[in-house]
Amino acid sequence: MTTSRRRTSRAGAARRATGPLYELSAVGRATGAALSLLKSWCEQGILVPAIDARGTGTRRYFDRATVLRAAILVELRHLLGTRLRLGEIGEWVATLNPGLIHRQRDPARVYLLASRVGDSLSEAYVPVSEEDPEKFMHTLRQWRAAVVLDLTAINERVWTALEE
Hints:
Elements: E1 2-3, H1 10-15, E2 22-23, H2 24-31, H3 35-43, E3 61-62, H4 64-80, H5 87-94, H6 98-101, E4 109-117, E5 120-128, H7 134-141, E6 147-150, H8 151-163
Antiparallel strand pairs: 1-5, 2-3, 4-5, 4-6
Helix pairs in contact: 2-8, 4-5, 4-8
């Protein structure tokens, strides 16, 4: 189990963008989110573009880690309902360690477990291999309640859509 306590600042995420960048329309196609929703998340600071729009006629560009953050938020909205007000959850997703969520194709399934620990949200990244399937259940039993997302499936869907 890998538990992340290290956070990245939202402002710092924009300065460290590496690799290919994607326009808002590509992010919408890859995540299934409406462009208006993605724009709203940008305005709220939940999604931070690698390159922000600088006036009329300019575009926002997003790195892969931010596209994955958007996909995670979309999955949470599907799970918890469209009336979900992101607030704390959006801020939490915005600060997930990009090194842990930026996985193109893992050989093992990787799950993101989210739970409240004290006054804050906490996460664990649990790789599940065929040799040790009990590891996932052991980690899950440590928390009273948790949201579980299959990062491998989210990654596969996002990367396939971005490569089209």
